[in-house]
Amino acid sequence: MSVSASAGLSLSRMPVCADQVPWQPSFILSSALYGTIALREILPEVEKTGACSIDLWPRPHGTQREEVDSLGEENIRDLMRQHSVRLGSIACYGLGPFKLEKEFQLASRFGRDVILVTGSRGDHHATGAALKREIKSFVEQLQPSITAAEKYNGILAIENHSHAIIRSPDSIRWLCEMLNHERVGIALAPHHLPQEAEQIASLAAEIGPSLKFVYAQQYGKGSKEKLPKEDELLQMPGRGSLDFGPLMRQLASMQFTGPIEIFMHPVPRGVPILGSVRAITEEVIRARKYLLSTLSDSCTVDSQYSLDGTKENE
User: Fold this and answer.
1) What is the enclosing helix (H) or strand (E) of 308?
2) Which of 104, 141, 250, 278 has the most neighbouring CB atoms within 10 Å?
3) Which helix H or strand E contains 113, and what residues bound it?
4) What is the pLDDT of residues 35-79, one digit of tens each?
5) Residue 31, class by beta-carbon neighbours within 10 Å (0-12 exposed, 13-18 middle, 19+ buried)?
6) CB-based contact 289:7 (threshold 8 Å)
7) Helix (H, G, I), strand (E, B) or coil at 102
8) How far is CA 78 from its chain centroid?
9) What pLDDT score was predicted for residue 151?
């Protein structure tokens, strides 16, 4: 079913399997989509996009994490309360995976189960048995961050990323086998995987409880070089060639409770993906409509939102 054909279909009226509880996707809004726009302008957009939490990104992708330091935690918490927004995640790629205790401590002051997303470290040229050894060493070095996640009731999610030891489906499987910890897992990034919809969905199923975060981003025509805007936007769900249906239906089948983040990288990093706050929000809503439309033939989904992005009974 196309997005346009299904735009008026309310997910709350869809059939629900008798042996499963309804699944409601949990969307999180990335501050990086808005570049260096201030949090006071972004937070009112969270509910409009159908999200209930925000992912704070630092430079060079955004400046919203730095606002926590410059404006003060209490001021940021007040802003979030005003707009009924929860801190769901902090992007910690610059900090790296090994020294996250202070960031977990800060996140805990905003609430429980905040996810810190970061990358992996090691010889990314390694393959086979050598790669397994690199991953084993990486897991051993992660222990202080794992301890911090436990201590401060946070979650650590490692993104599969190109030019990193955790990049391929096999490396993701091996990491999950070695970790096997409820507060540590994978931030699944389809953008950095072969663009095969069924394989990505199958990988999500294999990851199972270790799946903590999902980036709804595809490769499109890439994100490293400046492209015409229409080509750059092909990273967004529903614009490029990747069918997100298999992944979304797999997440529904798993009753996935983690955040799903509609995402793309602009070039250069740190600029808004479109020319205004309103345009960015409308693009996220469009992508969300598409993702929800892929569930229209599923019997395991429920939502307070219709596919036009509005709440039922408004």
Assistant:
1) none
2) 104
3) none
4) 999 999 999 999 999 999 999 999 999 999 999 999 999 999 999
5) buried
6) yes
7) helix
8) 24
9) 98
Strands 86-91 and 259-262, bridge-based pairing: unpaired
Query: Which residues are CB-contacts of 69 (< 8 A; sequence separation ≥ 6)?
Result: none
SS3 10: strand
Q: Phi, psi (5° rounding) for residue 221?
A: -110, 20
- Mean pLDDT (the chain) is 90
pLDDT score at 21: 67
Residues paired with 29 in a beta bridge: 54
Q: How far is CA 148 from the centre of its chain?
A: 21
Q: Is the per-residue pLDDT at 232 higher than 90? A: yes
Q: Which amino acid is at 313?
A: N
Distance CA 140, CA 189 (A): 23
Using alpha carbons, list the distances in angstroms from residue 183 to 10, 157, 160. Answer: 34, 8, 17
- Of 101, 103, 72, which Cα lies nearest the Cα of 89? 103
Q: Quick one: residue 89, left, alpha or beta (phi over 0 = left, psi -120 to 50 = alpha)? A: beta
Distances from the Cα of 161 to the Cα of 8, 117, 204, 232, 309, angstroms = 37, 12, 16, 19, 31
DSSP string, 172-188: HHHHHHHH--TTEEEEE
CA-wise closest residue to 29 among 48, 55, 47? 55
Single out the residue of 306, 237, 308 nearest to residue 11, CA to CA: 306
**What is the DSSP secondary structure assignment for residue 310, as one 8-state letter?**
P
Of 314, 189, 261, whose CA–CA distance to 29 is shortest?
Answer: 261
Model confidence, pTM: 0.89
Q: Outline where 58-193 has alpha helix (H).
A: 64-71, 73-82, 101-108, 128-141, 143-151, 169-179
Residue type, 38: A
CA-wise closest residue to 271 among 37, 29, 44: 37
